[in-house]
Amino acid sequence: MQFSFLNQSKAIHTDLKQAWLNIKNNEISVLDVAASVCSVALAIFIAHQLHFEYSMWAAFSAYVVMRPFFNQTLTRGVLRIVGTLLGGAAGVALALFFPRELNLFSVCAIFFIVSSVTAYYANVVSDQYNYAVLFFGLTFSLIVGYAFAYPQQDIVHIGWMRAADVMVGSLSTIFVSAVLQLIVKKPATSPPAKARTSPPAQQDQQYLPFALLAGLSTGLTPLLVIWGGQMIFIQATVTILAVSNQPRVASINLPAASMKKLMYRAIGCFSGALLGMAFNFICVFFSSYALLMLLTLLGTAVGKILQDSNAESSYMGAQFAVGLLMVSVHDSVALLNDRFGVHRFLGVMVGLALLAGMLALFAPRQKPN
């Protein structure tokens, strides 16, 4: 099987060996690492000052938006905000106007349709817009998932918190990147690169089978609510959509690339969450929230170093940092809270199993040369 665990495990091992060599050879930009840490710290500070809930959303939004050049950071931040606002508004509207229709069958159908469309268009539109398409689908699914799994909660409030946290995190990173641009006089724009435009219509159609498989996998996640897996199903949905976004990968290679990305997500978020839980226990022992924040920012730096050490394994480093932030960033000084990290990891595992199963059963195989 072209996307077997064995093949991808070998590739991951090779990637990590190269990453370690790059770290040993000091091929990491200390400035980029410091900028990411400052962005996360600023986002956490602002979210706490404004008494926002789900402040870990602000923290990891700040982390993932940062890019080496200001124009890249600005574009990514704006697209993340726009996609989140539109997806959140659509999700809240659906939950408010059709609350009785959000039963198990309808949510499965909605997730299938929206996820299929998201997975398709996120892979065929130009680089200028695909990140916004992804976050429209992610945020819509997250809001509808919350409305279905937790009908007693105020879904408007959750939607507002999601939008506010993402804006705080994204704008914090844009601000830090702008300051860095002024102080260091880095080039504002990245070196010229071959732009990726939307493929011709006949090539677009080749992405449709993969998008439908991703949508079908996502459409099965609401069934977890039957067994009490409310948070797990939401994280599984997010996982499947996130790894399905690979616009620079040829359609025939999407199954293998998605399997590899899933494995990186699992390894990264598990190790990051595990470290975050250790930080929580240490800081409970010393009764110090300040120590928790210091350790969290140090862990964020480690994640950024891993991310920048090798392009092939960068996703693992990003997920390491995100897993850590979900466990270690709290809305108050109440310290021990590993629930989000545990649910995130379990959701990743479920998403991996669902999408891997669909790809193994139904994905088209490459023809031998």
UniProtKB/TrEMBL annotation:
Which Gene Ontology molecular function entries are recorded, alphabetically? transmembrane transporter activity
Instruction: Note the topology in the membrane.
Output: Multi-pass membrane protein
- Coarse class of the protein's main subcellular location: membrane
Please provide one cellular component term from the Gene Ontology annotations of this protein.
plasma membrane
Which InterPro entries did the record assign?
A: PHBA_efflux_AaeB/fusaric-R
Keywords from UniProt, A to Z, are: Membrane, Transmembrane, Transmembrane helix
Q: Where in the cell is it found?
A: Membrane
Positions of transmembrane segments: 28-48, 77-98, 104-122, 129-148, 160-184, 205-226, 262-282, 342-363
Which Pfam families would you find in this protein's record? FUSC
Q: What is this protein called?
A: FUSC family protein
